[in-house]
Amino acid sequence: MPKTSAATPPLLRRVNAGKLLGVLSTAGVMTGTGLIEATGLTRATVHAVCNDLIEMGWVIELDPGREDDAAVGRPSRRFEFNSQAGYVLGIDVGAGKTTVLLADLRGETVAKSGRSFQQVRSPAESTELVHEAVVEALSSAGVTDAEVLAAGIGVAAPVDRLGNILLDDEFWRRSDTGLTARLTELHGWPVLLENDANLAALGEHWRGEARDVDDLVVLLAGERFGSGLMDSGRLLHGSRGGAGEMVYLKLVEGVGDTAGIARTAREQGAKVVADRSTKTALRELAGADPVTAEQVFTAAADGDEVALGILQYIADRTARVVATLGILFNPELVVIGGAVAEAAKSLLPDIERQLTTFTATPPRVAASSLGDAIVSVGAVRHALNYVEQHALDLQLTTRVQGRRVRAEAAASSTTRLRP
């Protein structure tokens, strides 16, 4: 019978360092005793590994607690995760614009920028605009490329587990602009490509309406429907990254295509305005310009019967979309996300009422509170996951000098902005 080799001391040290970083990155200041209780490691191991992490720059040791705070003996050593040891980027490359978030290693946003794609004519132009937005975010926070540890990017195309875009469809091929290679070439940091709806699911699970929900669908519902699926807290990709793609909606009675809430509202509004026999406030709201989705929701809120009819149609259609997701994946929660999320709140009661007529296991339905930052927030989380998995292999540019720093110095940081 072959012998099983014991884990080597360097491997054990690495595993133990991962445990301690995992605890410290989500906690505040912790004592050695607290870390022992949280990890199950011995006191000697905790202090030895913390010394290593301090030397590497991942952990800060604060002034010890006062003697009258300690039960017996000398003051406890106190440790804190160094959230300014590096930064990550979360980038949403949408159809009409790009949004860039720069965040510290606790995921707190320190800078935000964006660019419109309205005048873009080629993939090279869109790549350049993303690059410009990245440079603006870094510059505004005084962060260098060397301090960025990873960037997550969301695109509206199926992306497999290795970060490759499924190229079988012309629409998806247009999403493969060479952006990841170009950004790495320009800036040097690793770029992690992912489907936008998958990142939306990561964002909701981390900072949104689904923080305590592991069986989740996030439905991006603006221009076209797309869904990110999470089962037991794990993203579902499928064999080639196509899990959650919504092209099947063309076969669903009462839906017929993948047009999302904003697009449907806009198209239905244009139809009624074009019919001069229809009396509606939308005609006055739009004037000489095309009807917008916002105008449809505004008119409905003001009691316009035609606009209310459009929203009823949208609610009926969206209920069927949510029901198919509920039947296929049986999630606890479906979150409607994207720029339409706030407006979609008015549709929720009607959607939930209809769900019970379509499925015996209707999910709860909520509107995202992350707004149009949902994908970029998820991209930050995606980048942080990479950093946590590879922390001991990453070279930090800013190291803590000396074993101890004063608590007030450690507490000072760049002004933080919420997404």
From TrEMBL:
It comes from the Bacteria. InterPro entries: ATPase_NBD, ROK, WH-like_DNA-bd_sf, WH_DNA-bd_sf. Transmembrane segments: none annotated. PANTHER family: BIFUNCTIONAL UDP-N-ACETYLGLUCOSAMINE 2-EPIMERASE_N-ACETYLMANNOSAMINE KINASE, ROK (REPRESSOR, ORF, KINASE) FAMILY. Belongs to the ROK (NagC/XylR) family. This is ROK family transcriptional regulator. It comes from Kribbella alba.
